[in-house]
Amino acid sequence: MSHVLALSGGVGGAKLAAGLSAVLPPQDLTIAVNTGDDFEHLGLTVCPDIDSVVYALAGLNDEKRGWGIADESWRTMERLGALGEAQWFNLGDRDMAMHIARSWRLRAGESLSDVTARLTGALGIAHKVVPMSDAPVRTQVETEQGWLDFQHWFVGEQCKPEVRGIRFAGLPAKPSPGLAAALARPDLAAIVICPSNPFVSVDPILALEGVRAALESRRVPLVAVSPLVGGQAIKGPLAKMLAERGMACNNLAIADHYSGLLDHLLVDHADGAQAHEVRARGVAVSVSATVMCTADDRARLAREALLAAGYAMG
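The chain above was modelled as a monomer; its predicted structure follows.
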């Protein structure tokens, strides 16, 4: 029993995915990535969460900005702006190559799984990175303006409209072959939910056909790393979403959200006082330093998540 399935989305998810890839050999890890954030922009298929994981594993990510490629330039967007094209979502010059390579191959008939495998292979990534689905499932946010595609709300509106509801257009949809295979592996030893927004990074994965049922009937530990530190999200709109849904911004809300799935929750030292109440819900808790600023931080937290799952490190 040696295989680990990680469910990832967002910047925090990509960081822990990179940590897991640093401590596990390629044959022992599958990283299934949220694609609910994907969208078409300037004629290109953009997969923000897949690219965050791919760039992190390839050592290309811009750690200061938190997204995209390091040492980026923006000349193409400048010229597009001069031509009157939309500027609300920026694509860097180096990053553009990923979207172009992905888009034309999708239009040529390749699946997102095949394209992702091709791109990770070209970048020298040995670990398996798979989309949650090959079907287009798209997260949408309900606001006073109506239903908005997630990226338009997140980037275009800068998360300002109040969130009244969330839905996933394109359901029902099947999990990708890679995710389905990982869930069915006889040597599956643990499932790790990375520190990702539960509502828009993890729920789209759980909403796929058979995924939640497979997790509910699993015989291996499921461990989550909380995306909250000191009652706040390091990046992204999670704290705002919790407040607007009438929920406290704490780890009790995270444990409740994953009720029926979660065996163990890793929380930051800043939230250690909540550990007793989380344990009262029947969830084991470990208290650690969950902020990942360096490669050592990412590897250490990955080891702690695996230890919490009872995973025997080689």
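The longest strand covers residues 3-8.
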